[in-house]
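retry 2 of 3: previous attempt timed out while embedding cytidine-5'-monophosphate. Reduced batch size to 1 and resubmitted. Inputs unchanged:
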Amino acid sequence: MDLSGKHIVLGLTGGIACYKAAELCRALIKQGATVQVVMTDAAAQFITPVTMQALSNRTVYDSQWDARERNNMPHINLSREADAILIAPCSADFMAKLLHGRADDLLSLMCLARPIGAVPLLIAPAMNREMWAHPATQRNLAQLRSDGTHVLGVGNGDQACGEMGDGRMLEPDELLEEVIAFFQPKLLVGHKVVVTAGPTFEAIDPVRGITNLSSGKMGFAIARAAHEAGAEVRLIAGPVALIAPRGVTRLDVRSALDMHAAAVDCAQQSTIFVATAAVADWRPATTSDQKLKKDSAGTTPRLEFVENPDILAEVASSERAARGALYCVGFAAESHDLLAHATAKRLRKNVPLLVGNIGPATFGQDDNALLLVDAQGATELPRNTKLELARQLVAEIAKRLPSH
Ligand code: C5P
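retry 2 succeeded.
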């Protein structure tokens, strides 16, 4: 669970997005967090404290005069226990209050009273698009950011008022991903990471082609982990049915040649290149622009193949990699003799780090086990979820970067 041991104070302010806070509260708890809900009077117009108490399994606080606290200082006690305060939804009015350091209700009082260096404040704004775009809101947002508030951004789309645009609160699963990312160590700040992921598809004709069973899950997990670690991430994805991690720029490609062009281009501005894609070794020498048809004589088509470029080997031998500005990581999916094959592949591809895994045990699965091979030897990362392994791999990469 990604939030085990974390105690989060979830603040609700007045807005229709309060209904999403109920789901968010459950999602945080499912990931192992304990959640203490604090609500403003306006929030209680949209969702009852009873609902939030039932979901969080704790009584809700909504008054600075709460006699349950022996010292009668809930604003002090609640904030001292928190690993973070998350205001979701955060109304335009509440942003303005935070900005001015107003403290006339429990939630704003608690935000002001929190130890600013130890208890981070995260806000998920939620409002009508005109309110969001208003210069006053944008001015407040900039000031809140420079005061150290972590603004989680807003979504775009249909709004409860019937209008369309920016300003709706992010969905609970998006907010959960943001909160989890917030707590990850920032090991790759300032780095630009490119990840290739998934299979490639080599067309035979307009309706047929050759591909493989790579699901893309490991590469997507690495892209997410690198983003969580503070890097700017581009994810070059072959045809896969996966949703890109939040905050990651996705480039969809189909063939090995498309992936090659995108990767060579992105690698020129990057500091880390991770090749997880299962790139087809060969492609049909020619692609028919019309569907190949069966004929009455039963003639079977003959396919000729040509070799695809080795994207990793080419990027790893670029001038940028040679002068140490680009750290390259390769993957090897093997069926046996992992150490021997991974060691040989590392030298053949000329990469500092090669990650071996057993192909049949990883394709399509949510977990995996990795064997990291570098010039010093081998390190095992035992079986775990792909996301957890991706985080460990990011930490291993960070340790090996030239600046370390
Ligand atoms: O040679 P092999 O396909 O086993 O090498 C696997 C590694 O090389 C992976 O990191 C894969 O993404 C990368 N690769 C590549 N371009 C290819 C073939 C493999 O980038 N054409």
